[in-house]
Design a protein that fits this description.
4 strands; 4-stranded antiparallel sheet; 5 helices; alpha+beta
């Protein structure tokens, strides 16, 4: 299992669209998102980053997904790009296989 985390902010290109254009676009993204489930992609959450933590990531929104394989992750990334998402949103991704705390702590200890 692969975890896929997206963090993003709206670009000026997004806010320059009319409200109608934005609603049309998000409708298409919703349809495309539904199609990703055919690949075994699952949504854990789409959320706003509303924490008051002083170490808050400088992104307003995030989504967490699971994907069954690296191949599905590559198809997922391709679908996001093909949807024109990056034209409207400044985004960074975090992608990694499921792991346990002792494994990661051991990796950190060996850095």
């Amino acid at each position: 299992m692969i975890y896929f985390v997206e963090l993003w902010n709206a670009k000026p290109e997004w806010t320059a669209l009319s409200k109608e254009e934005r609603f049309q676009y998000v409708e298409q993204v919703g349809i495309a998102t539904q199609k990703l489930t055919d690949l075994g992609v699952e949504v854990i959450t789409w959320s706003e980053n509303k924490t008051t933590d002083p170490r808050k990531a400088d992104y307003d929104f995030f989504a967490i997904w699971t994907v069954p394989s690296q191949e599905a992750a590559a198809l997922f990334l391709e679908a996001v790009s093909n949807a024109g998402w990056y034209n409207y949103f400044d985004q960074v991704n975090i992608i990694g296989a499921k792991s346990e705390a002792p494994d990661i702590l051991n990796t950190l200890a060996h850095l």
